[in-house]
Design a protein that fits this description.
Elements lengths: L2 H77 L3 H18 L8 H20 L2 E3 L12 E7 L9 E6 L2 E3 L2 E4 L1 E6 L1
Parallel strand pairs: 2-6
Antiparallel strand pairs: 1-4, 3-6, 4-5
Helix pairs in contact: 2-3
């Protein structure tokens, strides 16, 4: 072989290496493209995961709020369960009080005692359920608790003080069922 043949073969070798290099470069470009596509997929999946996790946290918070709200409603319902009954019985108590204002004589003494006993039983039954009459005389007037229907001008009583109770007011635990009707000093 001559020197020319050797250099041609070397050139052929060089071109073979160049073809291999080109193939390697093309493979590397394909790998880079695949890596980029995979990275994009990973980013998309991360965003989707973050969105789902955020949605999960919101649903969990809504559920917790729902549980707290329904528990409060249950407690309130239990606390004021006797409200309707009290509203129905209070007018009956008013009628008993009117009946007890009758003058007691020998003829009606037994009946008045019976009415008094029933009246006291009703009061005790309501107390066991948290319903009590308000004590208002000589108290300061409070528009939340009292309904002023008359005013008077008495000098020996402080201003804005309840002088007389005209109709009893009732409360169920901490809630006013019926405000007391009162006469207030100016």
């Amino acid at each position: 072989m001559t020197q020319n043949d050797t250099s041609i073969k070397d050139e052929d070798k060089g071109s073979d290496e160049t073809e291999e290099d080109v193939v390697e470069i093309l493979d590397a470009k394909e790998d880079v493209t695949e890596i980029n596509e995979t990275s994009d997929e990973i980013e998309t999946l991360k965003k989707e995961k973050d969105e789902l996790y955020d949605r999960y946290l919101r649903v969990q918070a809504e559920y917790d709020n729902y549980k707290r709200r329904t528990e409060k409603e249950k407690i309130s319902e239990r606390k004021y369960k006797s409200l309707d009954l009290a509203n129905d019985i209070i007018p009956v108590l008013d009628n008993f009080e009117r009946a007890l204002q009758v003058e007691v004589s020998e003829e009606n003494k037994g009946m008045v005692e019976g009415i008094t006993m029933v009246y006291n039983q009703l009061i005790e039954a309501l107390k066991t359920h948290g319903v009590e009459a308000m004590e208002v005389e000589n108290q300061e007037f409070d528009p939340v608790l009292h309904h002023a229907v008359m005013q008077t001008d008495e000098e020996d009583v402080e201003s804005n003080t309840i002088v007389e109770e005209l109709q009893k007011g009732y409360m169920l635990k901490d809630r006013v069922i019926r405000p007391a009707m009162v006469k207030v000093n100016k």
